[in-house]
């Protein structure tokens, strides 16, 4: 892409021809970005449908709970409801295990199209369900499909987008999942849950059709030797240009894959092969594979991500989203319980949007602390309100009934502006390349396990602690999580992957800018002296193309999810 013209000197106005060149550059930039946005949007339709599966139990539980006046043939006990709200979550990691191996042979695009089939089947089973077994079967289908989509969805957006667009387009994934939850809350206000299930079946069908109009990943096509198709794919993705315009990027892509092939099948250069052989000879058989997973550079980031997931799920937001209708009813919300869930979805969506916009300017640490402490304060205040009114008649008018509703909506906004999205962002940043594939899958799995545990344990906690005790516990988890994250969460925003790895190898300190500057200068002096003495070349700048971006260890990620 041609660089924009330099600004006029001495602060004067730019000449007319310079303005014309700038306008031309803007048009070209838009043309290059538009096809990548369209391809990402087609992929995001799948995530929209997945978000619907997360919001669907919320609108269904009130109608199928034992004692409800809905007249539905299905009447579930509390234990059955707890399974209904969580079975899909525990099935997602199982789907993740098969995601990579199934994606590689048939491609990202075709995988994403096939994944829509179990979603469609699940919605139809929901619509016609007449037994508990059928409900559970549908939940297993959406859980497995949610896991199966992980590898193609993650790798597709990474492989088709240019580095300067990747962050923004990747951030739309979480937005679409939350939007799917909101759509369920919206439909639940106007339609019975079975009708909602039938309507939901249309969305994966639309997603599958939309994917026919976008190209396959050029990275995958080149890896299969289909260079001509990869060239056409790149021409489409870079603004519907001629092959000559993408020749350099295509060559970079081929070189990158050839180099990786050599490293995998020829052992890389002689020094690396000798070092690997020496390491293997010096250690017992089988120990070398586990060694990277026993080092600080894996253990500390994994602990950080796992605790972030735990705090995000056990600080109240997971159960609030799932059991919101019941919670709003218990607290005596002054508006219709389904309308309250609609406001809840809007608050989640607004919080996610704020996170996407502000994270690049404010950084992750400030957003996380405000989010976690604010969420904890909201649940603590609601717990106090529930404790004060714990002995009151459920049908009696309550003063300040708007207060718990407002606080819970605020907690939804705050949690989604930080702590709920934080671990998903960290997964792509904090792990070294050697373990990134396995670590990403393990981190996502522990997140879904915590989500399952939070929903499944909710009714047990209510029986043992009552509502106010449960909410006090949520507030305490949030407060403890904020303290942990204050001492463990580095500021990774604006940092390269190399700098983040230096933090975990104790070469940098991203918790404190002052300590980081002192440590960096102390370590930099001997390194610079060595570089000057040996005439080493300076470090490379940012990578230009997706294929050569060191953040992408795509085959490793997809095969280990």
Features:
mainly alpha, Growth Hormone, Chain: A, disordered N terminus, 74% helix, 561 residues
Structure description:
With 561 residues, this protein is mainly α. Among the domains are: 189 residues, Up-down Bundle (Growth Hormone, Chain: A), CATH 1.20.1250.20; 201 residues, Up-down Bundle (Growth Hormone, Chain: A). Helix content is 74%, strand content 0%. It has 25 helices and no strands. Helix 1 runs antiparallel to helix 6 and helix 3 packs antiparallel against helix 4. The N terminus and C terminus are likely disordered. Its main location: membrane. One of its GO terms (cellular component) is membrane. It is a multi-pass membrane protein.
Topology:
Blueprint: H1 16-64, H2 78-84, H3 87-106, H4 108-128, H5 132-148, H6 150-160, H7 163-188, H8 193-200, H9 202-210, H10 218-223, H11 227-237, H12 247-266, H13 270-282, H14 287-290, H15 296-314, H16 317-322, H17 324-330, H18 337-362, H19 364-388, H20 402-416, H21 422-427, H22 436-488, H23 497-504, H24 513-534, H25 554-560
Helix pairs in contact: 1-6, 1-7, 1-8, 1-9, 2-22, 3-4, 3-5, 3-22, 3-25, 4-5, 4-6, 4-8, 4-9, 6-25, 7-18, 15-22, 17-18, 18-19, 18-20, 19-20, 19-22, 22-25
